[in-house]
UniProtKB/TrEMBL annotation:
Name of the featured protein: EamA family transporter
SUPFAM superfamilies on file: Multidrug resistance efflux transporter EmrE
Transmembrane segments: 30-51, 58-81, 111-131, 143-160, 172-193, 205-226, 232-254, 261-278
Pfam families: EamA
Provenance organism: Alsobacter sp. KACC 23698
UniProt-listed GO biological process terms: lipid A biosynthetic process; lipopolysaccharide biosynthetic process
Signal peptide: none
One Gene Ontology cellular component: plasma membrane
C-alpha cells in the first residue's frame, strides 16, 4: 500500500465515523439510515451520469453486495436503537479486520508479510479493547448481538465489493452503481414497512441527511478504489481505524462518557498502523 493510498483510506475512515455520527440525529436510527442511503443514492445517480454503468461482469457482485448492505443497515440501526455509538461502533467494526483478513487469505490467496499481519492483529486488538471499554452492565445484550452481526456483514460486503470492483475494471462506475442500488433497496424496504407517511419526518432532516450521504459515499468510494490497487485485507484493516474518529466524536460531540482505556486502545491502533506502514 503506497503512502497516498494509505492516507486516502485514513481519510475514508474519518468520513465513515462522521456519517455514523449523523445516525444519532434526533430521529429513529433506521429512518436516519434510510435518509443517508437515499441521499447517497441520489449522489450516486448523479455520478453514474459521468462514470456510466459498470460492465455485465460486475452485476452479480453488485446485487450480492446490495443484499448484504441491506442486512448491514438493519443490524447497525437495530444496535444504535439500543446502545450508544461509543458502545456499538467499536464492536461493529472491531472484529471485521480479522474476519476480512482470514477470508482474504483463504479465498483470494493474497499473501501478506508477517509484519503486516502483526500490524493488523495489533490494530484489531486496539479496536477490541475499545469495544470492551465501551461496554457497561446496563447495555442491552441485543445491542451487542446486533453489533456483532454488523461486523460479519462488514467483512462479507468488503470481500464482495473488492472482488466486484476488480471484476468491473472500473471502481468508480462500480461504486456509483452500488450506492444507487443500496439507496433504492433500503428505501423500498422502508416504504414497505412504514408507508409513505412514515417517511415524512425525514424531510425536516434533509440537510444532515445529505451531509451524511455525501460522507458515506466518499468514504466507501475511496475504499472500493483502494481495494483495486492494494490488498483487500490491508484496506479493510486501515479503514477500521475509523473507531478512533468515532471515539472522539462520541466523547466530544455526542457527550458520551469517556473511558481511560480509550488511550491504551488508541496507542495499540496507532502501533498497528505503524507496523503496516513499515511493512
Amino acid at each position: 500500500m503506497t503512502l497516498p493510498v494509505f492516507l486516502a483510506v485514513l481519510a475514508a475512515a474519518a468520513l465513515h465515523a462522521g456519517w455514523n455520527a449523523v445516525l444519532k440525529i434526533r430521529i429513529e436510527p433506521f429512518l436516519a439510515m434510510v435518509l443517508i442511503n437515499g441521499a447517497g443514492a441520489a449522489l450516486g445517480g448523479a455520478a453514474v451520469l459521468v462514470t456510466g454503468w459498470p460492465i455485465a461482469a460486475a452485476w452479480p457482485w453488485l446485487i450480492a453486495s446490495a443484499v448484504i448492505h441491506l442486512g448491514y443497515s438493519i443490524f447497525l440501526t437495530a444496535a444504535y436503537a439500543r446502545a450508544d455509538m461509543g458502545v456499538v461502533y467499536p464492536i461493529a467494526r472491531g472484529s471485521a479486520p480479522l474476519i476480512t483478513t482470514l477470508g482474504s487469505l483463504a479465498l483470494l490467496r493474497e499473501a501478506l508479510p508477517t509484519l503486516t499481519l502483526a500490524g493488523i492483529a495489533t490494530l484489531a486488538s486496539g479496536i477490541g479493547l475499545l469495544a470492551l471499554a465501551g461496554r457497561r452492565r446496563s447495555v442491552d445484550p441485543r445491542a451487542l448481538a446486533y453489533a456483532g452481526l454488523t461486523a460479519v456483514m462488514v467483512s462479507v460486503y468488503t470481500l464482495t465489493d473488492g472482488l466486484g470492483a476488480r471484476a468491473a475494471g472500473d471502481p468508480h462506475a462500480y461504486a456509483a452503481a452500488l450506492f444507487v442500488l443500496d439507496g433504492v433497496g433500503l428505501t423500498a424496504v422502508a416504504l414497505w414497512l412504514r408507508g409513505p407517511s412514515g417517511l415524512r419526518p425525514l424531510w425536516r432532516f434533509r440537510w444532515p441527511g445529505l451531509l451524511g450521504g455525501a460522507m458515506s459515499l466518499c468514504a466507501y468510494w475511496i475504499a472500493i478504489w483502494a481495494m483495486t490497487v492494494a490488498p483487500i485485507a490491508l484496506v479493510a484493516a486501515v479503514r477500521e481505524t475509523s473507531v478512533l474518529f468515532a471515539s472522539a466524536i462520541a466523547v466530544f460531540w455526542l457527550k458520551e462518557p469517556p473511558s481511560p482505556a480509550r488511550v491504551l486502545s488508541a496507542c495499540l491502533i496507532v502501533t498497528g498502523l505503524a507496523l503496516i506502514r513499515l511493512a
